[in-house]
Amino acid sequence: MTTLALTVLTTTDSPEKAETLARGAVESRLAACAQVSGPVTSVYHWQRAIETAEEWQVVFKTTEARYEDLEAYLLAAHDYETPEIMATPVVRASSAYLAWLGREVANP
User: Fold this and answer.
1) What confidence tens digit (pLDDT) does each residue in 24-37 have?
2) Residues of the chain with pLDDT under 50
3) Rounded CA gap, 70 and 32, in Å?
4) Alpha carbon distance 106, 8 (integer Å)
5) 88 close to 7: Cβ distance less than 8 angstroms
6) Strand bridging mode 86-89 / 5-12
7) For position 66, what pLDDT does the model report?
8) How many angstroms separate the CA atoms of 78 and 18, rounded?
9) What H or E segment, with its residue span, contains residue 49?
10) Which residues of 85-96 are buried (b: 16+ CB within 10 A; e: fewer)?
11) Cα separations (Å) of 71 from 41, 47, 54, 105?
12) 36: part of which helix (H) or strand (E)?
């Protein structure tokens, strides 16, 4: 059986918060890996206005089987009222990487 890998993206307003989200997900085995990058400039509608903000992106590597738990963690740990949480299926990846990813996020 093949593991369906996902990348899950969120953003936050500081590098410290981004690293805390990343570390918590990896320590809890909700993600095998998380990468923090930024700053990025986000432009978006919020409360009837167009906002611009400096943010840091966190990309989590996980499986479809762990997505629900990762989403629940992000909703609980994130300080945004409506955090961005978007999952994208990984179309192709090396078999060795997928095996590692699956082992790292296997339910303890």
Assistant:
1) 999 999 999 999 99
2) 1
3) 11
4) 17
5) yes
6) antiparallel
7) 96
8) 9
9) strand 49-63
10) beeeebeeeeee
11) 23, 23, 23, 14
12) strand 33-46
